[in-house]
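Re: that chain you flagged

S.,

Sorry for the slow reply, it's been a week of failed gels. I finally had a moment to sit down with the sequence you sent. For the record, here it is as I used it:
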Amino acid sequence: MGRLRTLISLLILLSVLPLRAQDSRDSLVRLLQADMARLVEINGKEYRKVVGDAVFLHNDTYLYCDSAYWNVSEEYIDALGSIRIVQENTVLTGDSIKYVIPENTAKFRGHLVELVDRDSNVLRTNYLDYNTKDSVALFYRGGAMKDSDGNLIESITGRYSSPLERFDFIGQVEMFSDSLFFVCDTLYYDTQREIARFHGNTQGWYGDNSISSGAGRYERMVEKLYFRKDVHILTEDYEMWSDSLYYDRLTEYSHLLGNVQLLDTVDNAIALAGELRFWNEPRRAELYRSPALVTIDENEEGERDSVFMSADTLIYYTMRMCDVDSAVVAAAKERYEAALVDPMQQKKSSGSPAAGASGAAAAGSARSAGASAAARRQPGPGTLPSPYYPPEDTLSVTDSIPASDSLSVRDSLSVTDSLSVTDSLSVPDSLSVTDSLELPPPPDTTEVTFMEAWHHVRIYKSDIQIRCDSLLFTSIDSIARLFTEPVLWYEIKSQITADSMQFLFRNQTLDRGYLFSNAFVISEEEPDKYYHQIKSPEMIGYFENSQVSRFDALGGVTAMFYVAEDSVITTMNQKECRLMTGRLKDGQLQRILYTENIKSDAWPVWKLTLEQSRLRDFNWTPELRPASRYDVTSRGVRASRRAESVPSPDFPTFKYAEKYFEGYMRGIIREIDGRKPLIWIER
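Prediction finished late last night. Pasting the structure tokens below so you have them in one place:
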């Protein structure tokens, strides 16, 4: 029997040789094996009918089938039953094909066909053409591919190139990979490097997170993603926009470029920049290229008054308390304790004599003295939580507030993590051990926050504007510190300057404001003519319900107030004393007390020269004030798309996967239980 099969194969091969010898193509179709072969006529056409374990060879490609009808004159082979095409490491299986010899193409129609490449990627469809010369497969009317790791891609049409080791998916592309879901218009998948390139309208989902863009790339082996063209990201707490995005899943690091916006729904804040670098654990955000921070301040009536802040560089990060350098923690706690000292209350408690007089009448229309009222609310990071608040009755009180924060700061914080230890430790020969060991306290894992704004800081709020070089904040002490020529304007009419400033927040509201070294408050009464002025080494403002209720000027005070009679300014009162305190209600000055070494003079304004109407170092600079939020940042703020994104009608349905890998994606969805992809099950 074996000899007969060999003889039949040889006869068929010999019958083909004269035909192929006249053809210009290089390759020949050869029948290598069959149980039986004979000539038959069907509808006037002559066929070579091959039956039983037939094997054809063409273009270094083997075609296996149960039976075949070979039309030599029209050059095609109809193969039936247990079809298998093998070319190097690519294998196709199906029920029937038409192999068109001039086109070098095996055409699968209507029955399930499966293509397996060298990497065990399995493509299934009902309609596929495979070119044995180019080693390229084309499928249409829907197909799905699943790899050996269970990742899946489907589309309406597509292409597989064996030389390139690449799948192209075109039209209604849907992908699942490593708990990620994607849809796009076109997807190119490099099977060797496991890189998927997305083109057209691209959307992705991971749990409750989603992303959309115009194009992207997923490098599966290194877990990195790149997206570009109108990138939009939505998470439980954040919403982000950018022109491009790089994301490392292993380190949870994101790098966004071009017209970046981050909307923080937890802290009700918006970050704007040309570049954003973001780490998730521990959380850290660095903003560059004209960055700005917007915090939304909403009152009890629901009215919003946003705060805009910009700088050359903005940095926000969180740490566990146990991971913060001990020197930083100690300095913050010392700063907080010092900030709670009330010098006037301390002086009163000590029983020192305090001669004083009411200065309310002398103040006239001094616009609440302009001084501490200007610091009524500090914008930005002060709304962050404050985990450390020592009891007030345990504080050590000093005669004055230390002004250590008036020192100039460098561009970055110098923090040492190492401890100074001696060269050798003295260890006793024997240890005294008690019956029980006292375990060390557990580490303090309280999350603390830090905010840094470096160089050319600008802040705008409808009633307050600020300029300084740098601003630092930490929730350890909940104090915002302003350095290097800080200037604060309040309701346009008042200007406050000092060498440095501090603002203390308690229970997420502004509690106190401090002006350190060369404090100078100017309040405009009549433009270019009359200015109320207070000058002292230090000043403190106390707040209630976000308004100044009291201010203290300390250490040698000089003040000028202009008094009006019948709405006409007639007199300038000049005061000098060691201490000054003012009481306010609803922003209006009610009473001023002067203490120690009081000196008072009054001058008719018509007798005053310009020099006499200005205190030394007077410097009124309204031209430097950020007059609108556009003086802080010209970047626009995008409206949230959260409502239109959840749930998404575009989430993949995997209809071809359900057809060709029945039940597989349903199992995947159930395994991810409880996340947004369950939308697919409901549909």
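What I noticed first: The chain has a mean pLDDT of 82.

Talk soon,
D.
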